[in-house]
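task queued by scheduler; priority normal; single chain, no ligands, no partner chains; default sampling; output format set to structure tokens
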Amino acid sequence: MTENKKIFAYGSLMNESSLRKTVPAASNVFPARVYGFKRVFDLASHYRYCSKQRVPVCVLNLVEQSQDVSINGICFEMDGNSFDALLSREQIYQLHKVNVFDYRDGNVEFSANLFWAKNYRPYQFLRGSEAQRHYLNLCLSGCSVYGEDFVQEFISSTSFWGLEPNVDSDDIWRGAY
């Protein structure tokens, strides 16, 4: 019998349909929080692609921060049978063990894994790309299940690498999901 694994997800895996494509038997899905990270769009996807611009879509990654900084996401359990499919989907990341807190009851702490790429060449968010907008909307619609405060926290804890100096990031969020 295989052991269940807990995963903390902070990007497209927060969207239930996206999660279930890879991990159909995901269970115990709930909103959660991890400290010591900021979420950033700065990683070229290995399978999401903008056919119009003919380049990979930029996906979310993490940047280490002080322990008073946190990101929201979801936590879920999965059996070992789906783990290989998840590792294949998230192959540009490495698995890292973290302490996770229940989003609604911050006193509940447990151990889980998250996917985080550390050694990579930073990649820019594709402004104006429908494929890029689709990825952003997957993340935001996944957040919306947990309420508007959860969405707003996702937005405030997410940044964009290499954003042009005079571009307001609010412009990227406007009209999303």
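post-processing summary
- The longest helix spans residues 130-144.
- The mean pLDDT is 90.
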